[in-house]
Write a structure and sequence with these properties.
This is Helix-turn-helix protein. Residues 8-63 form the HTH cro/C1-type domain. Pfam families: HTH_31. The protein contains eight helices and no strands. It has helices spanning 3-15, 19-26, 30-38, 46-55, 60-72, 85-97, 103-114, 120-139. The chain folds into two domains: 3-72, 434 Repressor (Amino-terminal Domain), CATH 1.10.260; 85-139, no CATH class.
Amino acid sequence: MSPFSQSLISLRSRYGIRQGELAEMVGYEQSYISALEVGLKGPPTTELVDRICDELSLSDEERQKLHDARDASQRKFTIDVDTREDVYWMFKDLMEYLSELSEAQVRVIREVVRIRDQQKPQIIRSMRRTKRHKVEEATM
């Protein structure tokens, strides 16, 4: 189930709203809301997400989480034409093995992807601590 589907179901449950009621509130058919929740439809437009947020009077934080869930629910990706060749091969490998990845493997991949330049000093400090610790053990 997509992050958006999960979020929409959770919101309806928290607010005690049925699919038909939400559909009426935002001006869509109940069948479309149902299709979003079960994943038959891709993520909705940002306009629909904004309508849901407005109708439910979501806080800025809740609004951002729903938009993030929408963005995370994209099923198709386009690689920029000027992307390096090795990135194409990485995506090929990911597509081929995606259904076989364990939760632990997905977590590791996500952590690696999230490493940014501003985190490099932290990683280097962590590595230095590890090296220093190993040296101390060797002198004992």
